[in-house]
Write a structure and sequence with these properties.
Layout: H1 3-9, E1 14-19, E2 22-29, E3 32-37, H2 51-64, E4 68-69, E5 71-78, E6 83-89, E7 94-95, H3 96-102, H4 107-126, E8 129-131, E9 139-141, E10 147-149, E11 155-157, H5 164-169, H6 178-187, H7 189-200, H8 204-215, H9 219-225
Parallel strand pairs: 4-10
Antiparallel strand pairs: 1-2, 2-3, 3-6, 5-6, 7-9, 8-11, 9-10
Helix pairs in contact: 4-6, 4-7, 8-9
Length: 227
C-alpha cells in the first residue's frame, strides 16, 4: 500500500490504542478497525511471517471452527511507514474483563460469566486452539451472550490435541492481571477449574497431569488446585 493510499484510508480516524511509536489500533468508522504492526527486532520470526499475516490466518482458522472473532478485510504492507496492517470488522460487544468488573457485586451475573468462560476455554482447547494472550481483555461478550476473541495474532490452531501441560500453561494469562485475578478469586478458583474440567471431559490420568502442571503455573493456582 502506498503512503497516499494509507493516508486516504486513515483520514479522519479515531485512535483506539497507541504507544510511543505511534498508533496501534485505529477506528475507521462503519464498524471497521485498522491494526498496525511494527517489526520490533531486526532478527525476528515476524520477518518471515508478519504478525499481520498471522492475525489474518488465525481469523480464518477460528471462523472455520465456529469460534467468533473479527472478520479480516485486507492485509497490507506500507513501506513508507515501516508497518504492516490489517483492516477488519470489529467484534461487537464488551470485553469480559469489563463485564466481570461490573458484575463483582452481583454474584449471579459473575457466576454466569465465569461459568460460560470456563466452558469457552474448554471448547477452544477441544478445537486445538492455543491462544497465548487469552486474558479477560481479549475475550468479548457479544450482544447475544456468546463469547469471542480479539487481538488474535497469537492464536494458534494446531493439528494435534493440546497436552494437559499445554492446557495448563494457557491458564497463565488469566492470572496475570489484577482485575482478572480478582474475578477468579471472587468466583472461586477451584469452582472455575471444576467448570472447565466438566466441559473438557479429560480422562482421569490427563486430569491429574493437568492439575499437577497447573499447580506450577502460579501461587494462586497452586494453593487451590494441587492434588
Amino acid at each position: 500500500m502506498s503512503l497516499r493510499e494509507y493516508e486516504a484510508l486513515t483520514a479522519g480516524t479515531t485512535t483506539y490504542s497507541a504507544d510511543r511509536h505511534g498508533p496501534k489500533v485505529l477506528g475507521l468508522g462503519g464498524g471497521r478497525c485498522l491494526k498496525l504492526f511494527r517489526r520490533k527486532r531486526l532478527l525476528s520470526s515476524s520477518a518471515l511471517i508478519p504478525y499481520a499475516k498471522r492475525f489474518a490466518v488465525a481469523a480464518e482458522r477460528l471462523a472455520q471452527r465456529g469460534i467468533r472473532c473479527v472478520r479480516v478485510r485486507q492485509v497490507a504492507r506500507v513501506p513508507a511507514i515501516h508497518r504492516h496492517l490489517v483492516e477488519y470488522d470489529y467484534l461487537a460487544g464488551e470485553t469480559l474483563r469489563a463485564e466481570l468488573v461490573a458484575a463483582m457485586d452481583q454474584p449471579g451475573q459473575l457466576g454466569d460469566l465465569m461459568g460460560r468462560h470456563a466452558a469457552f476455554i474448554a471448547e477452544l482447547h477441544r478445537q486445538r486452539v492455543y491462544f497465548r494472550a487469552v486474558h479477560f481483555n481479549n475475550v468479548i461478550v457479544c450482544p447475544d451472550g456468546e463469547l469471542g476473541l480479539i487481538d488474535i495474532s497469537e492464536a494458534h490452531v494446531g493439528r494435534l490435541a493440546l497436552t494437559p501441560a499445554k492446557r495448563a500453561r494457557n491458564f497463565r494469562p488469566m492470572v496475570k492481571y489484577d482485575e482478572d485475578r480478582a474475578a477468579l478469586l471472587a468466583y472461586g478458583v477451584e469452582r472455575f477449574l471444576a467448570d472447565y474440567l466438566a466441559a473438557a471431559s479429560l480422562p482421569p490420568r490427563a486430569e491429574r497431569r493437568f492439575r499437577r502442571a497447573l499447580a506450577r503455573i502460579d501461587p494462586l493456582l497452586a494453593g487451590t488446585m494441587a492434588r
